[in-house]
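Possible race condition, two jobs.
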Amino acid sequence: MQTMIGVIGGSGVYQIDGLEGASWVRVNSPFGKPSDEILVGRLEGVPMAFLPRHGRGHVHSPASVPYRANIDALKRLGCTDLVAVSAVGSLRQDFAPGDFVIVDQYIDRTVSREASFFGPGCVAHVSLADPTCPRLGAACAQAAREGGLTVHTGAVYLAMEGPQFSTRAESRLYQSWGADVIGMTGMPEARLAREAELCYASVAMVTDYDCWHDTHGAVDVAMVIKTLAANSANARGLVARLPAQLGRTHAPCPHGCDHALDHAIMTAPDHRDPALLARLDAIAARVL
């Protein structure tokens, strides 16, 4: 299978540099309208697709991002690997503003978002024990190192609802739970990528120390934007090095990302809702 890298750009990352034959395309999804059109092209001969998570101009809040439509649209385009870039606060002294973090676990504290493609009429349960792809995460970490970036691996991401930042008591509570970084968009995005049988990696850019840090002060948007501006070029450079890391051929994932739906669908064939099955034509065609 040919590799196609999908990049979901978060706050501060609204483009990919150097795409050949780049054009914005509209992808229709039965799960609604994606955040924006998708920029498609090639980099070093590898097809790539870029979707700004919040839309160009940053029009979607973390809770209003159409996560299902975004993942469905990228799957329809033929993406095999999804790299999600996002801004996060740090809950650790050694994860400093400006650092990059490769996330491998989540604690989900979101409350108002559609978290599954499945539901009444076609019930499915996928494993989220390991919600990100180790192979893809390692490629992202190597791309960061080659760019001279400070990168940490093996981190727990606390996904909060937002749009407000944490209270000091919440920030300290999340530290006590073992969370390393905190953000607002990692979930349900990672859940949905797993249901779509896509390799998914989360590249988090640390913008601040949240509000637990006694000498750091409360988080404010100006502080976040200042760090984002400094790091956005680094993030684009990391993405530009991914084709060399991943190559042109996508072999079967050794960690089973591309078979996450094996044995997951519980609803008997004669009890499945035809309307829901029609919406799942891209997400679950392999098993339906």
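Job #2 (started ~2 s after job #1):
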Amino acid sequence: MTTADALPPARRNIPAFDGLPIPADTANLREGPDLHPQCLSLLPLVGVWRGTGQVVYPTIEGPRFFGQQVTFAHDGRPFLSYTAQSWLLDGEGGPVLRAAARETGFWRPREDDTIEVLIAHATGIVEIFYGTSKSATSWELIADAVVRTETAKEVNTSQRLYGLVDGSGSDADNTRDLAYVDERAMVGQPLQPHLSARLQRIAG
């Protein structure tokens, strides 16, 4: 365990590197620039989250399990940066088999309290979502457009629901987990659940 690992989540942030001529992104609201007022509806998401989830779909044999780290950060402007990195597990809680999905994008809240979300996948897919805050701690996104490269899997539409739920950790600063469900219509199948995960706050 490193010194950083021993710190509680509220004391951790994205590793900082010297030399950047502009303020670095922060995933910890106690450090760096102030969160832009337009992003206040997304404030509970800011942080680094890590946990496990599962993949299900009619074209996949049985559920598959994965680990994932998700980062929501900001630089003081009216958007959050988003990155997600996953790894395939050998069964629920099993050892790591290999690297898996990668996503990167931006959550852009608008003045009417709706959200524009852009997500690019390493598999050659780019999605544009429009969303709303269902409550102070839940957000629903529905795809408005899906663009694919020639080599990407067929994905026709998707939607996601994110929410904070009662935490599974014992840390006093880690009382809420981030859970989400991703539904997809792809490879000839109708819209249905594809991914779900539950993540614990590890920084922020």
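The chain has a mean pLDDT of 92.
Logs attached separately.
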